[in-house]
Specification:
The protein has 13 helices and 18 strands. It has 452 residues and is of the alpha/beta class. The structure holds 2-acetamido-2-deoxy-beta-D-glucopyranose (8 copies) and zinc ion. It catalyses: P(1),P(3)-bis(5'-adenosyl) triphosphate + H2O = AMP + ADP + 2 H(+).
């Protein structure tokens, strides 16, 4: 028995030593911008399905407010709410520094330095080098560091070229690249253009995205990385349909000289130029299809208040509504709305040695992705707003009992215990009347010839 135990532990030790010495765990994080969670059910996506079948699927990812591209991509790689990582919109104004940020002018480290993304931490903790193909912020010197390999953002660079570079870098032995990020602009761009209800056009676009997934899988297979690399495929937000009938026209409510519009729609960031209360009251009575908040009264659940780049007044349009000054509708789909709306949620799929196989999970917050990635890479996470335990069920090396399972087990144990108790009570009750007989038996025992 003890020798078997020793053998067992020796095996565990050997196994651990083997996997530690074998190679460092590798992780590739991929984002297809604007991939709404339910596209997975609406469209036939064979490559993505194949990917999911051998890994895990999170059907809905609860993203952060505002549900825009730059803020959510930075949340995924930092685990922080937007008020804590400082990328609070795609268009920002910093009143202290008197600087503007936009997606076309994003490379001043000033905007990014409130947080440290995982590709920097990975290099700082010495686990290996990081590589990046156009993930927002990945070409900026954040905390004085860029990924060892990266591409300057250029939307004209094809998906295939981005993948070829990433796979080449992941295959590099000097330095060893253990973490990489890859970004692609679709299906977001087409979602804006056609609107998510245009299933004919969206089908074509999503088939293309699915081919891209197939291309990525084939490249990883051809380079021999497929069996060892962990791959996460996710997105930053979903998409809602917009229409010309759902316009909120600010010019009808107040003069433009009253305020500066820092960010436009569907969450408008308003910097008052006149008395704040006056501007607020004019906006408050403007349109019933948007909420108007003073910065101090932004709901707690948004985690969107404590940053100087959040403007004094924000307007949040209802799903499908567009805020304009006097322009006409320019896009049939948009995102940025309340992060409680299912239409704003993306999905997540992951496969590789670190992940379970054939497991499907209801939902996860995107702040939880960061601690999960740190675990896979063996990194000590920086302070963040996620919860590692929420992601345990996705991981091959973690115990995972879901709430219904836990309740089932508790009820099961309770039932077994109460059955036993009942049996004991019943049998005791049965024994009671036959006591004289029992005593008699005892007495007959006393009469045992051995004792006698
Ligand atoms: C980009 O923003 C910076 C401030 O952050 C500003 O100094 C610079 O002029 C801007 N560049 C362009 C091309 O707008
Ligand atoms: C920043 O943007 C605002 C609003 O678009 C504009 O009024 C201001 O001149 C810009 N400031 C700088 C420094 O570019
Ligand atoms: C940047 O990295 C250094 C260590 O290299 C660290 O001491 C510093 O706190 C980091 N900056 C931020 C903003 O976390
Ligand atoms: C962006 O990429 C395209 C296609 O590869 C290339 O022709 C163009 O020169 C690039 N632009 C910049 C600014 O590098
Ligand atoms: C990967 O690297 C090895 C050597 O380290 C090389 O033989 C192989 O061709 C590379 N594969 C690709 C796809 O670059
Ligand atoms: C502010 O808006 C109100 C309502 O449209 C208008 O009467 C007022 O003149 C505006 N103030 C300025 C300074 O533009
Ligand atoms: C919108 O407002 C601007 C500035 O007040 C004006 O020049 C323009 O003609 C208006 N456009 C429309 C479509 O009303
Ligand atoms: C999010 O995490 C940061 C860093 O630890 C912390 O400062 C902040 O208070 C957290 N936010 C919430 C809502 O817990
Ligand atoms: Zn996006």
């Amino acid at each position: 028995m003890s020798s078997m135990l020793i053998l067992f532990f020796a095996e565990i030790l050997l196994c651990c030593a083997h996997s530690a010495g074998d190679s460092v765990p590798k992780l590739l994080l991929v984002s297809f911008d604007g991939f709404r969670a339910d596209y997975l059910e609406t469209y036939k996506l064979p490559h993505l399905q194949e990917f999911i079948e051998n890994g895990v699927l999170v059907k809905e990812v609860r993203n952060t407010f505002i549900t825009k591209t730059f803020p959510n991509h930075y949340t995924i790689v930092t685990g922080l709410y937007e008020e804590s990582h400082g990328i609070v919109a795609n268009d920002m104004y910093d009143a202290d520094a008197k600087k503007n940020f936009s997606q076309f002018n994003d490379s001043d480290p000033f905007w990014w330095n409130d947080a440290v993304p995982i590709w920097v931490t990975n290099q700082q903790q010495g686990k290996g080098a990081s590589a990046a193909a156009m993930w927002p912020g990945s070409d900026v010197k954040i905390n004085n560091t860029t990924p060892h390999f990266f591409m300057k953002y250029n939307f004209s660079v094809k998906f295939e070229e981005r993948v070829e570079r990433i796979v080449e870098w992941l295959n590099s032995s000097d330095p060893v690249v253990n973490f990489a990020v890859l970004y692609w602009e679709e299906p977001d761009a087409s979602g804006h253009k056609y609107g998510p209800r245009d299933t004919q056009n969206m089908q074509r676009v999503l088939e293309e995205v699915d081919k891209h997934v197939g291309f990525l899988m084939n490249k990883l297979k051809a380079s021999g990385l497929w069996d060892t690399v962990n791959v996460i495929i996710t997105s930053d937000h979903g998409m809602a349909s917009c229409s010309a009938e759902k316009l909120i026209v600010l010019d009808e409510c107040l003069g433009r000289n009253n305020y500066t519009l820092i960010d436009r729609t569907p969450v408008a960031a308003v910097l008052p130029r006149q008395n704040k209360e006056d501007v607020y009251n004019l906006l408050k009575n403007c349109n019933s299809h948007m909420k108007v908040y003073l910065k101090e009264e932004i709901p707690d659940r948004f985690h969107y208040r404590h940053h100087k780049r959040i403007q004094p007044i924000i307007l949040v349009a209802d799903e499908g509504w567009t805020i304009v000054q006097n322009e006409s509708l320019s896009k049939l789909g948009d995102h940025g709305y309340d992060n409680a709306l299912p239409s704003m949620h993306p999905f997540l799929a992951a496969r590789g040695p670190a992940f379970r196989r054939g497991y499907s999970h209801g939902s996860l917050a995107n702040v939880d992705i960061y601690p999960m990635m740190c675990h896979v890479l063996g990194l000590a996470p920086r302070p963040h707003n996620g919860t590692f335990a929420n992601a345990k069920c996705l991981l091959a090396d973690q115990w995972c009992i879901s709430v219904p399972e836990a309740i089932g087990i508790v009820i099961g144990v309770f039932m077994v215990l109460s059955t036993f108790t009942c049996i004991i009570i019943i049998s005791k009750n049965r024994v009671a009347p036959s006591r004289p007989f029992a005593r008699l038996q005892l007495q007959s025992d006393d009469d045992d010839p051995l004792i006698g």
